[in-house]
Amino acid sequence: MRGSTHADHLGVSLQKHVGLSAVGLCIPTGRVNPDQLDELARLADVYGNGEVRLTTGQNAIIPNVPGERVAGLLAEPLLKQLSPRPSPFVRGLVACVGTDYCNLALIETKSRAIALSEALHNKIGSGANPLTIHWSGCPAGCGNHQAADVGLRGFKARVDGKIVDAVAIYTGGRTGPHAVAGQEILETVPCDESLPDVVAGVIQSYRFGVEAREYAALSDPLFTAATTAGLASWRLKETQPPTGMPA
Ligand code: SF4
Predict the structure, then answer these.
(1) 231 and 134, same structural domain?
(2) Nearest-atom index, ligand 1, CA of 103
């Protein structure tokens, strides 16, 4: 059975093999250039056993790094670009390929996703809890926009007589044993300079809603009793609101 927690494998994790660590590096939206790939391979050869593993979150892991070599790896210049400790708005960022390589795409996704996350970092700050932000460039949903705390689905909209890039915004999606599809909360948001303000507002109200539900659940004597008896997952499922809770 799948666990109730999700690990993104970023940062340094001890492996089951004594003395070895895995170092997870964040690749914003999964896009790397050839020089970065060459350097990633070199680091895997120098510090690990030559293996690089790719994750569903579009990131990379260098496994089998001896403990005494971890500090050297963390000091490598490439890790300034592919950070093991990224911004909370980049850490869970996923974007489909968008107009760059997909004939079905309705909007550009990857560079727009990075620009939005940088703007959110500047607005909300680096101390925020990580949250997942997924972009899909069309309704096909290859970016799994309904499986994220905040999802964006691109399309074309007519605004003041002009055709512009726009997104519908979803919140509350999650995977795992209590999977919930994100719900659309904003139908048409143009991808212009107002987008960061709109999404920042969505995040603040989403977090407030989650905290309020968690507080209500913990104040519920049935929930407390179920937790004590090891039945919290049952109770959580019963009490889960339609919008879900972040992983
Ligand atoms: S979601 Fe749409 S735009 Fe993105 S990769 Fe899939 S088909 Fe292409």
Answers:
(1) yes
(2) 8
